[in-house]
Write a structure and sequence with these properties.
Shape: globular
Number of domains: 1
Largest sheet: none
Number of strands: 0
CATH architecture: Orthogonal Bundle
Number of helices: 4
Radius of gyration: 11 Å
Helix content: 55-70%
Structural class: mainly alpha
Order of helices and strands: HHHH
CATH class: Mainly Alpha
């Protein structure tokens, strides 16, 4: 799966599940500061990532990703390792 596809799916999850405006969700948007996702939100996001991409994510991995672009890269790398 290409990086753009992963980003677009992550963006859709954040818009739909967390009620964020699409224009607010860019590659450079930070998960905590820009999107204001707290620890519980990050746990929920990890569950959505697992269901959508088949990749186990935890709160620490999401915190380490910092931006949506970083998270998309992390998801893509984990999918490649699992394949």
């Amino acid at each position: 799966m290409a990086s753009d596809e992963v980003f677009l799916r992550l963006r859709a999850i954040i818009v739909e599940q967390f009620g964020k405006a699409p224009e607010q969700v860019t590659r450079d948007t930070t998960l905590r500061g820009g999107l204001m996702l707290d620890s519980l939100d990050l746990m929920d996001l990890a569950a959505y990532i697992q269901r959508s991409f088949g990749v186990d994510a935890d709160g620490q991995a999401l915190r380490d990703a910092h931006t949506l672009a970083g998270l998309a890269r992390w998801v893509r790398e984990r999918r490649q390792v699992a394949a």
